[in-house]
Design brief:
Shape: elongated
Oligomer: single chain
Strand order of the largest sheet: 2-3-8-5-7-6
Order of helices and strands: HHEHEEHEHEHEEEHEHEHHHHH
Helix content: 55-70%
Number of strands: 10
Structural class: alpha+beta
Strand content: 15-25%
Largest sheet: 6 strands, mixed, barrel
Distance between the termini: 27 Å
Number of helices: 13
Length: 385
């Protein structure tokens, strides 16, 4: 029997039992659509988090100091000395805290971060209007500020805040720049580091951002930084933590990949359940068409012809179910991205794997009933009532 003839016979059999076939297909459709949707959500989350980490700056290392005993931080001069480490392009020490920001009768609690001019390059932070913090602002503790978009809207509405003044814990600062929209700086105000030390009454520095000259040097710079910190804190390794951006990306990728596999595995169970449904309905079909099989064999149909007929029927059911499942999964992804803040990113590989697995399910669970039909003896089949 030719494949085209087997396909026509399978299609005719499917159309003769539309309702039963549709119910059988639902298991595969739900399984494929869930695999595509859930894995796409996982991949979207990976891309979103990776973009956020990369948006923190290129070739970035973060130094967090917890300290030990009476020494819980480093001085501004010590922080700036990290610039002398071979392979370091720029250093941006920071201090941070929360203050009350006020403009007229508008009053909001906001995060304030004291920064230096190098912060712009190290953390890839730009202004959309006005200017950035300058070295002279840090040297002379100028009362100037950069404001995030959300904070600007809360305090100044739709008007441009550049040139206006804002009160921070009762101290008057002039806004010289409006920061570009960025998830890490929308709800914040940045001021010169020395001004922040006075405002927050915190001389010590516990956070230092460093930029390596190239990505290949980050691991080397990290080792040299840890060596310098070890000298400052007298070999107490638990007094500080140095984080490499590459390590952060690897960790994020590992977590989200595990999540995607877990979600895909859970959804894949429904595919197996759908395959069991196909096998069940095919066994019923074999029983119902026993006499038909006997007649076909008695007029010369071979075992492989019967096997191909029923196996093709199972493959057609699973194949069509897989295609419908792909459309439902992609449509569900678009819907989820529109009604939620989740990022959905469907990949061609996942679509092809899901479709291929659905066809494999049809073959795997169709073999047993097809083989059962092929092994029926013509005499026994014709006697069946």
């Amino acid at each position: 029997m030719k494949l085209s003839q087997a396909f026509k016979m399978a299609w005719k059999s499917i159309l003769s039992n539309k309702t039963r076939t549709l119910l059988t297909m639902l298991g595969i459709i739900i399984g494929v659509s869930c695999v595509i949707l859930l894995v796409s959500v996982g991949q979207g989350a990976t891309s979103a988090v990776t973009a956020q980490v990369q948006g923190l700056g290129s070739n970035l290392l973060s130094v967090s100091i917890s300290g030990r005993g009476v020494q819980t931080s480093v001085t501004y001069e010590q922080a700036q000395s990290f610039q002398d480490i071979e392979g370091v392009n720029a250093v941006a020490p920071t201090v941070s805290g929360n203050v009350q920001a006020k403009n007229g009768n508008k009053n909001v609690n906001v995060s304030v971060e004291g920064i230096t001019a190098d912060y712009e390059e190290v953390r890839s932070t730009k202004v959309q209007s006005g200017r950035f913090i300058l070295p002279i602002d840090v040297d002379y503790s100028q009362k100037v500020a950069l404001i995030g978009t959300e904070t600007a809207t809360d305090l100044f509405g739709t008007s441009n805040p550049v040139g206006a003044y804002v009160m921070l814990n009762g101290m008057r600062f002039k806004i010289v720049g409006l920061l570009e929209e960025k998830s890490t700086s929308n709800n914040t105000i940045k001021i010169p580091l020395t001004s922040a030390q006075r405002l927050l009454r915190s001389k010590g520095i516990r956070t230092i951002y460093m930029q390596a000259e190239t990505g290949d040097l980050t691991s080397i710079v990290k080792a040299r930084t840890e060596q310098k910190l070890s000298q400052i804190f007298r070999s107490t390794d638990d007094s500080y933590t140095v984080t490499d951006q590459k390590e952060m990306l690897k960790t994020v990728s590992s977590i989200t990949d595990t999540l995607s596999i877990a979600l895909g595995g859970i959804a894949g169970i429904s595919l197996i359940v759908g395959g069991i449904g196909i096998m069940n309905i095919m066994l019923v079909s074999v029983t119902e068409r026993t006499r038909e099989i006997g007649i076909r064999k008695s007029v010369g149909a071979k075992k492989r012809d019967i096997l191909l007929q029923f196996l093709m029927e199972s493959i057609v059911i699973s194949g069509i179910s897989g295609m419908i499942g792909i459309l439902v999964g992609l449509g569900g992804g678009v819907l989820v991205s529109q009604i939620t803040s989740l990022t959905v990113q469907a990949s061609l590989n996942i679509i092809l794997i899901s479709f291929g697995f659905s066809v494999f399910i049809g073959v795997f669970f169709g073999i047993f009933p097809a083989n059962k039909a092929a092994n029926l003896k013509p005499v026994d089949a014709l006697r069946y009532d």
